[in-house]
Specification:
Structural class: alpha+beta
Keywords: Signal
Mean pLDDT: 74
CATH class of the domain at 52-208: Mainly Beta
CATH superfamily of the domain at 52-208: Immunoglobulins
CATH architecture of the domain at 52-208: Sandwich
Shape: globular
Strand order of the largest sheet: 1-2-4-10-6-7
Signal peptide: 1-29
């Protein structure tokens, strides 16, 4: 006698059916609030500062984000000066609705040793990625901050901290969301290297989820999805079909019939 299919496999089968249908009836994002409003929604701002060394400071977010999908703000530091300044702290000020939502934070930084040992090779980009432990992502007033003894910034390479937030239900298609600014601490720079930039805002527009995002959202609500495995704005179903097939063809092993 065999066991009945598990809940996991039933959900996967249902999701696969949804994919088949979605291939014919993929959702089209509703129009945004008009050309004038869309033009005012700027997804990236940059400033340049000379504080002993030259700094380029940027905050950006994708131009659009699918409804219900995580929102990632990228805060970057670059330099074209000789020598290697060090970033010791990054503060992200998210939109008001996200200020109580603890983000996950990923660091992307050029590292000569880490890049080579990590397989980048002598001529690779040598970019090391790491996720900041949740305990080290600290609430600081209206911002979320991360600190370090010093991430090196090499000339021509960027240091980037990505703050990813889970959106509230109020972020529906057509809504434009503008974040607050950002702050950085780096050396060398007087005084104490702290620089607050309220003008470093970033705006994104929520759109209707594409077919792939809709399926991932359904799996996530059923406890089978993952906020880490997001699709691009194209939402290609090719990205998720292998996982669904694995859920259908895989799963728990059946017991051999009892003799």
């Amino acid at each position: 006698m065999t066991h009945a299919p598990t809940r996991h496999r039933l959900v996967s089968l249902a999701a696969a059916a949804a994919v088949a249908g979605a291939g014919l009836t993929a959702a089209i994002a509703a129009p945004t609030q008009g050309t004038a409003d869309a033009a005012a929604c700027v997804n990236e701002h940059s400033v340049k500062k000379t504080l002993i060394v030259n700094y380029g400071l940027t905050k950006s977010v994708p131009e659009t984000v699918g409804q219900g999908q995580p929102i990632t703000y990228s805060l970057s530091v670059t330099t074209d000066s000789i020598g290697n300044p060090y970033v010791q702290g990054v503060w992200d000020i998210p939109p008001k609705e996200l200020q109580s939502v603890k983000p996950t934070v990923k660091i992307k930084a050029f590292t000569l040793i880490g890049g080579i040992l990590g397989g980048g090779g002598a001529f690779g980009k040598l970019i090391n990625e790491e996720t900041v432990p949740p305990a080290e992502v600290i609430k600081d007033g209206t911002s979320w901050k991360i600190s370090h003894t010093g991430w090196a910034v090499f000339s021509g390479q960027s240091f980037t901290a990505e703050f990813t937030y889970k959106p509230p239900a109020s972020y529906t298609a057509g809504k434009q969301i503008t974040s607050g600014g950002a702050a950085f601490k780096a050396t060398p720079a007087p005084p104490l290297g702290y620089l607050e930039l309220g003008q470093l805002t970033a705006c994104t527009t929520v759109r209707a989820p594409n077919a792939g995002e809709a399926v991932l959202g359904s799996l996530d609500s059923a406890g089978l999805g993952s906020a880490e495995g997001q699709l691009s704005s194209t939402g290609s179903l090719v990205d998720i079909i292998p996982g669904l097939i694995g859920g259908i063809g895989g799963g728990d092993k059946k017991e051999e019939p009892k003799k």
